[in-house]
Specification:
single chain, 434 residues, alpha/beta, seven-stranded parallel sheet, 16% helix, globular
Amino acid sequence: MIELERGTIMGKEMIAMLLAGGQGSRLYALTQKLAKPAVPFGGKYRIIDFPLSNCVNSGIDTVGILTQYQPLELNEYIGNGQPWDLDRIYGGVHVLPPYQKASGSDWYKGTANAIYQNISFIERYDPEYVIILSGDQICKQDYSDFLRFHKEKNAEFSVAVMEVPWEEAPRFGLMVTDDDDRITEFQEKPKNPKSNLASMGIYIFNWDILKQYLIEDEADPESENDFGNNIIPNLLRDERKMYAYHFNGYWKDVGTLGSYWEANMELIDIIPEFNLYEEFWKIYTNSEILPPQYISAQSVIERSIICNGAEVYGEVHNSIIGSGVIIGEGSVIKDSIIMKDARIGKNCVVDKAIIAENCVVGDNVTFGIGSDVPNKLKPAIYSFGLVAVGEKSVIPDGVQIGKNTAVSGVTSKEDYPDGVLESGETLIKAGGQA
């Protein structure tokens, strides 16, 4: 990224602020002990790898990552930023949790407040522009092209938008624009949408404008301190120069178990919509060096991703198998995601399941039996016919687990009436959470 000299220091043209503090509550079993941006994706990656890789590929070398919920593993994963070429003396990657000040402090109260609390960090780099990113989307985007659009329009604020089907528009924040892409109205999840241009939650601001509105927003005791609910409406109120940048690439909000499962499955399509392996737009990750995967002579692998360090002694069909996973003899894995260091015993059938890291599944276990009935505890979360198994869970030998179920914690045979967890049930034991 071009650097602009101002006085005796070199100011960055644009820096990125990456919002990575969300709980990911709609992923429940996967995020009870883990920040959503740290959730594994595609076998060897984590969700945060995608915005970080976009920054590097777009020439942005200064990134502030705003963490809050369950930050430990995410902080360790990011480290000094070296895997993404973000270990810089001036710039680089910085983890920015909430911190105590002399005047007292708070958790980040909203997206705008999170940036407000880090105004001093931004001012260290004297940027002309600030791009606000989400740490929980799977997206391949050239931010330099977005910045070019912002400058050509002489904008003060720009937002990346995607056209969505009209029937889905009420689920999104929508931008209403004129023929020149200037924003004339913003609708937050309206019943009667006037537009199908959905905000991706990716913004570019002129830094002086952003700073002014953050300070004003913080001084308003009635504000929710949120970009969508407060900052953007205030910019419209003041008739600022606001534009919508049409993005046509790959973008997936993996906010639910269903969308997360779908996005992973799209990686193994015959012609994948999202190619992880393009040389000109690499996705970088902080992955340990592991031996090659081992596939036994009796194994069958069909249209799947098998990561380094995995050992497969059974069959894998249309699935994502993380590093260090062991799949026992006679086991059949179908349409599933099995994360790092999980152990699947012998003669299991795993059908449409998401099994988190470091789980242990005994022998002769069957996932995905029975009818597709709604989950009794959280029907909007545990759906899509999936079985969700939380991190470090243990499932004993010989049990059967139905559809739209969740298992979390160390379970025993006594937890399964007649050896079965029926479809729509939830089983949470010590060490696990719903």
